[in-house]
Specification:
By secondary structure, the chain is α/β, with parallel strands linked by helices. The chain is built from 10 helices and 5 strands, in the order βααβααβααβαβααα. α7 links the parallel β4 and β5.
Length: 173
C-alpha cells in the first residue's frame, strides 16, 4: 500500500490510547502530522506514540506550507460566518493539505467533518474517523471482528460513537 494520510490532534490523542494503534499502518505507509497539530499535543502517551512513529518512519512532521496556511485561515474565517460547527486552524490545515496532496484526513473533530457538507472545495477530500478506519481494517482482514474491535477501541479510548455514526455500518455490526 502506498497511501498517505494527515492526522489532526483529536485523532492522534484517541488513537494513541488504542492498544492496537499500529494497525493504522496497515492502511497508510506514512501519516503526516502538521506542525500546528504537533504543537497542540500535550499528553505523555500521545507524545510517546508520536515519537515512536517518527522513529519508525511511520509518522512524519509536515511543515507549514505558506499557501496551505493561507487557505486554511480563509477556511476558518468562512466557517465562523456560517451557522455550523466551525473548523479550527489545525483541522482546516489538514483538510487543505489532504485536498492538495490527495491524502486522507484523519479526525474526530466535528467541525472538520462538517466542512465537506457545506464547502464544495472540500467535497472530494477523504475524511476518516477511527470508526471508518476500524471498518476498513476489518474489510481487509486485519481484524477478526469489526464489532469486537470497535468495542475495544471505545473501551480503551472512551470515544463513543452514536447510533447515527454506527448506522452506516449497521450490517457489519
Amino acid at each position: 500500500m502506498s497511501a498517505s494520510a494527515v492526522a489532526d490532534t483529536s485523532f492522534l490523542i484517541d488513537w494513541a490510547r488504542y492498544s492496537r494503534s499500529k494497525l493504522l499502518f496497515k492502511l497508510f505507509d506514512v501519516v503526516f502530522i502538521p506542525e500546528s497539530v504537533l504543537a497542540e499535543l500535550r499528553s505523555e502517551r500521545t507524545l510517546t506514540w508520536v515519537a515512536q512513529g517518527l522513529e519508525e518512519g511511520k509518522l512524519a512532521v509536515l511543515p507549514e506550507l505558506p499557501d496551505a496556511s493561507r487557505e486554511a485561515l480563509q477556511l476558518v474565517a468562512r466557517s465562523r460566518r456560517l451557522p455550523v460547527r466551525p473548523v479550527d486552524y489545525p483541522e482546516a490545515y489538514c483538510l487543505v493539505v489532504g485536498r492538495e496532496l490527495g491524502y486522507a484526513v484523519l479526525t474526530e473533530n466535528g467541525g472538520a467533518l462538517a466542512v465537506r457538507d457545506y464547502d464544495p472545495n472540500f467535497a472530494s477530500v477523504e475524511v476518516l474517523r477511527a470508526l471508518d478506519i476500524l471498518y476498513r481494517l476489518w474489510k481487509l482482514g486485519h481484524v477478526e471482528s469489526f464489532r469486537g474491535e470497535l468495542e475495544l477501541y471505545e473501551r480503551e479510548t472512551k470515544r463513543l460513537y452514536t447510533a447515527r455514526d454506527l448506522a452506516k455500518y449497521g450490517d457489519a455490526l
